[in-house]
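Hi! If you just cloned this repository, the fastest way to understand the data is to look at a raw example. We've pasted two of them here, unedited. The first protein comes first, obviously.
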Amino acid sequence: MTEKALRLGTRRSKLALAQSGQVADAVRRVTGRPVELVEITTHGDVSREHLTQIGGTGVFVTALRDALVSGEVDFAVHSLKDLPTTQPDELVLAAVPVREDPRDVIVARDALKFTDLPRGARIGTGAPRRMAQLNAYARAHGLDIETVPIRGNVDTRIGFVRDGELDAVVLAAAGLNRIGRIDEVTDFLSVDTVLPAPGQGALAIECTAAAADLVAALGELDDPFTRAAVTAERSLLAALEAGCSAPVGALADHLADGQIVKEMRLRGVVGTTDGTRTVQLSTTGPVPQTHDQAMALGRELATEMLNQGAAGLMGERAQ
């Protein structure tokens, strides 16, 4: 008798299906069980409003979590950067697999780099975080750009450039990698120019806390380095009391001495969307060995940022 298929809850977008398909393959390998994708429509997928207007935090997640709790699906795959920072008691992040490239990228007309865009170039992005940092960089380096709020999937966003409506759009490298379109990138933005969203490039595999056997099996896919990094980043975001649509960038990376990872560096930035004011700080410490240590690293940096006026740069602080 064949074992019952595990039901994997996923959003319906091309990117979500691509990353869920990759996770399904990995879960089949570690469990030996068949996995079927169950497509779920979320509020973020059907609403045409900008994410900041419909709540930002959780708009892509709630329907998937409801399906988990109701038993409609056995586990779900999320883009980690979409997850609210508070974890419901009945659900558990069973695995955070190895992270993809966390950087933001530009897809521009005429294969242009960011710094080669013409004066007055119109750059599309839906993220206040990207607007804040691009405008701050432009201001510091004498570039003249206009950031334009946009929504839509990868096809829609790149279409704005192909149609001549925009000079460039900003996207996540990880998403383009996962759908096989990384060759359309015209410029990779250094994390020194634009810090990514907390958790960007990482996936979260979630299931109910009660499914102990499944939690253990999915745990095989967990990457401790990635988990420590994203935990620190999300702890920073939570301590700033900011939602995932707030203009906060964060990245934890590992500092290695040869092959041996010695320390973790956490960088954070918050800024007004026009780029006139930013607070950017970093801290370095031993690689966290526990969840609590990773959380502490994020809180510590958030405290320093708040002491330097970060709260006043986030507009209304999302609860």
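Ok, and the second one:
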Amino acid sequence: MSNILQSDIWAKFQEANGHQVFRGQGEGWRYMATLEGGSTGRYLYAPYGPEADNEVAFDAAIADMKHLASDANCWFIRVEPTNSAIWGEPSGQAFLAAKGFKLSPRQIQPAHTQVIDLTQSEEDILKGMSATNRNLHRNIHKKGVSFEKSQNPADVDILLGYLDQTANRLGFNRQQDDYLRTVAEVLMPAGAANLFIAKADGEPIGASLCYDSDDTRTYAHAATSFEHRRLTVGNPLLSHIIFDAKESGLSYMDLFGIAPTDDPDHEWAGFTKFKKSFGGTSVSFPGTWDLPVSTNGYRAYKGIRSARELAGKGKSLATERVLPKAKGTLAALGTKLGK
């Protein structure tokens, strides 16, 4: 299963977004990393990387990353390997800890996701969905709802409007408009991103921006109209995206991010239930890990970060307010993709 975050087109997007990009490649390994950080310390970050075929290849990739990080005056490297062939029988966490990696204080890309095998027949994919989703997929057109696929970057404004409405109503942070517009401008003309638009009687009522790698479509950002919530259009919009991915010759649909358990009180419980209602398999990765390049530098980084978090907690206690949780299936949002 290939990953958009380690692709050349994602590197192009990161450069367009103002990041310095580093690449490395050797026998059985490759990575794309960006230079991150500032006053709390510089580091190289490889989202869902490095990619490696086995432990030997992984070690070679890490050695190359550390060398580049040292030359760039970085204090550490930050990685998120996903290929279980790297660590074999032990857990990925135990493998990384044994090699001197430290669990990052900031977990970035989701360590748990839901993946649908698109090499199955359409009938089997439908069977994996809930009865509600099957019914909506087959009959939503009877309610005047249609779906369109766009590769016009200007159309991303449809999504931005609904993301803003949803974020304000449910009380969570989302990717900034400028970030998503740059994503659209770089990836959509290259065929690496598609905007799927749901319409009722010809008027947009929701949209989803998805990313395509060589064999995988990633469900990244989505929001729908609250005024049209009775149509439950987010469900058939996603089923349409899934079957379009199959028709496009892709092998996997990554629903990008679920809660680690089925705890109904988890902050991601709402959209985890939504995503799992489309079937597929739950997949787990080791998460985000750091490897110090400078021991003293990394110690300073953690100290500065801890101090800032304590200061932030002191401030938040004075202004704390309870925000509503996203319980329904109105929107399934991937707010971290890429950084």
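That's it. A detail worth noticing about the second one: Confidence is low (pLDDT under 50) at residues 315-336.
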